[in-house]
Amino acid sequence: VLSPGQEKLHLNNVTVSQGVRMLFSLMTPNESSFATVQEVPKYVNQATPYFSGLILLEIVLGWLKTDGPRIKINDFITSLSAGMMSRLPQLVMRSLELSAYIYVWNNFRLLELPWDSAWTWWLAFLGVDMGYYWFHRFAHELNILWAAHQVHHSSEYYNLSTALRQSVTQQFSSWAFYLPLALMVPPSVFAVHVQFNLLYQFWIHTELVKDLGPLEWILNTPSHHRVHHGRNPYCIDKNYAGILIIWDRMFGTFAPESDKVVYGLTHPISTFQIWTVEFLYYPYLWQRFWEAEGISNKLSVIFKGPGWTPGKPRLGDIADIPQITGEEMPHDPTWSPAMQAYVLVQFLLLLDVYNNLLKDQTVGTFSFVFFFTFTKNKMLLCLSSRANAAEMEMLRCVLIMALQQFGYIKPLVPLLAFPIEVSLTDTYIITIVSITDHLS
Ligand SMILES: [Zn+2]
Ligand SMILES: [Zn+2]
Q: Second label for 229, Cα 20 to 30 Å away, from 111, 183, 410, 432?
């Protein structure tokens, strides 16, 4: 197994046709089977331009239609910021999903299916999709996992940007659900499908596609996934599918779309601050844990559903959630057009830096330590200082990004490239936090 640093040597790029098809799970076994993990393209990192293209298309079609989807800058930026942050750990380490998988394959595999067989490819497709179903179901039914996954459900809007609102901490639990596959399917095949599975779930986050006829029987579609994002009683704990909706039909969690879906958490958090969206649930869980009486109740707070209270069934009572009136209004504080323009421009700059960072990554242990100490210190400084200081910091960020963008900052020694990228990473976490702070 090569170190992640050596993987850089094998950066395979996808063609435009593949880039579009990978978003809809339409790649063939022939073009996406690889002998080694190192050869597997970083499909998700290369998806940014295709995501952007479809998001733009959705915005334009939304303008043209009178009842088009609602997209608000504040919500949009918070979703994209969460998406960017969720990918950061993978700049400095191989994903936990893949590391754990390779470990089980190396030590415990029962048989070795051939990596170049279409049968293995399809088996992995089904296996990863079912693994995702169970991971996703546990993420809703276990409070401790919900603490991470609630980030994805925190938007009160439903559009393509909602797909990118991913949790930073979720990756620390999802890995366990794919390990049975590691007993026989080579890691290089798994590494392809775990990416395709994630990518497929992008396009289903839209209100523009109403009904896909017979496809609704087999595939997870925009309609099915709208139900999953609803807070109407009929939507709660339904439609966990990734690519295939058959798992929900088989395991009894399927609900078709009926009443107009009202999106978001049953108790909306009404903020756009990324730090709050990502992490607020953990202290809340901690508090409920301490307040629960007796060890059995304490364990239930952690391992039963988010809606559970003493004396209630494992997943809580559906009658306890707030009623839907149809008059619900998403959180949308007023802010000046000048500030909107300022925040949007900064955000687009940031997006560009982010894309460059993903395209060209190098890794080292030194940098890893460097990353954590610096980010933490600056973060604390930034959060504890006044609004004014945050703006100064933001200007500094923009300056650094601009200098880097136009080629004025370049590493002298290739080995130094990473520390510089790391400090940029750091810069953009702070920028994300400052920007989203302005929104709330
Ligand atoms: Zn979910
Ligand atoms: Zn979703």
A: 432
The ligand that comes nearest to the alpha carbon of residue 145 is 1
Domain that holds residue 300: 275-320
Residue 15 has pLDDT above 80, yes or no: yes
Segment 305-331, tens digit of pLDDT: 999 999 999 999 988 888 888 788 888
Q: Which of 390, 431, 403, 149 is nearest to 274 (CA)?
A: 431
From the CA of 385, how far away is ligand 1's center (Å)? 35
Ligand found nearest the CA of 146: 1
**pLDDT for the residue 85:** 83
Helices 48-64 and 187-203, packing angle to 10 deg: 20
Task: Tell me, yes or no, whether 266 lies in a domain.
Answer: no
Structural domains in the chain (count): 3
> Do 309 and 423 have their domain in common?
no
Verify that 310 and 347 share a domain, yes or no.
Answer: no
Q: Is residue 327 part of a domain?
A: no
Tokens linked to 126? 């089904």
Instruction: Note whether 242 and 291 are same-domain residues.
Output: no
Total Cβ atoms within 10 A of residue 435: 26
Q: How far is the CA of 1 from the centre of ligand 1 (A)?
A: 34
Within a domain: residue 286?
yes
The encoded tokens of residue 315 equal 């997943």
- Whole-number Å distance, alpha carbon 22 to ligand 1 midpoint, is 22
CA nearest to 98, candidates 6, 208, 207, 186: 186
Closest-CA residue to 145 (of 119, 129, 167, 160) = 167
Give the ligand whose atoms come closest to the C-alpha of residue 306.
1
Neighbours of 49 (CB within 10 A): 11
The ligand minimizing its distance to the Cα of 240 is: 1
Task: Calculate how far, in angstroms, residue 153's C-alpha sits from the geometric centre of ligand 2.
Answer: 7
- pLDDT (average), residues 136-162: 96
CB 346 within 8 A of CB 337: no
Determine the distance separating the centroid of ligand 2 and the alpha carbon of 162, expressed in angstroms: 7
Strand partners, 263: 230
C-alpha to C-alpha distance for 177 and 124, rounded to whole angstroms: 13
Which amino acid, one-letter code, is at 395? L
User: What confidence tier does 171 reach under pLDDT thresholds 50, 70, 90?
Assistant: confident
- 137 alpha carbon – ligand 1 mean position (Å): 8
